[in-house]
Amino acid sequence: MGPASLDFVNVIKRYGAVTAVDNVSFRCEAGSLTTLLGPSGCGKTTTLRMIAGLELASEGQILIDGRDVTHLSAAERDVTMVFQSYALFPHMNVLENVMYGPRSSGIGKEQSAEMAREKLGLLGLAGFDTRLPSELSGGQQQRVAVARALVLEPSILLFDEPLSNLDARLRRKVREDIRALQKDLGLTVVYVTHDQEEALAVSDEVIVMSNARIAQKASPRELWEAPANLFVADFIGDANVVDGTITALDGDVATLELDGARASAPARGLVKGPVKVAIRPDALKVMRDTGDGSSGIAGTIGTASYLGKYMEYEIRTALGDLFVTAPADAGECGVGDDVRLTPKGHGIAVIPE
Fold it and tell me: Would the pTM count as exceeding 0.85?
């Protein structure tokens, strides 16, 4: 089968008195990569398990390519999952692990081996047939798990926190591999993570979940530039949420007053008056306060951390404590320095809710 679309229609999952997923509806287009993102306990993994058929919905409908699979078992859905732990059989070699699915489906040994070798070659693992999982690196184990999930060419491929067991450098490489594979094969992928950067890097669309519901479904750029509410603004990208005022409107562009600094941002249907404003850490320029009455948000540096390419500052202001990043070569300011913060022209958004 080819890639399939996925629809959730008013899906609810209860465990006794606890509602783990609360009236969730969304659509994933065929051949797209959609990420479920959110903090622990928000309902994202339960949602993924309901797609797989490992959990059954209490109410609502789940459709795969328009076919109602709500009450079908996992084996009847043509969906496979790559688990967080990879779940490789330790006593089987790489080829046997990947052959397991076809063999369990009644496909002959030779054909199963041919199917397995094809997927292993696709993932850069040709020649690894006889190695045991214990003889592989974390990234290689991850690719074996993906090959095993792909071997029966499912209509939907699911990933549950697939990079959580890898170090930072390998995470970046493997997420790029997963995205390239998804695009090359036109797969429909649903991907669960709590890592914002990972979600933004791999996704066509991101579904941000909070308290068992969808807080926002949007492209990575829209999530970053136009968060739908305070939760999304705070959760995505460490935004500073502050009080501001819309002082003027020019079409859909608002002029914002931020304690001595002015900025422009899309008005998003709001009118003049007080608003909540999300300011990304890299959206403000940090300059020493020379006492010449320059405009900008006045502040005092509370903490300063050097991270190689950039500095991280915690700056005390009348708007509250702001988390700000600045290039390390921009002229370092130290703890206790008085500074002025001026908007750079990006990374500032009003919150419509």
Answer: yes
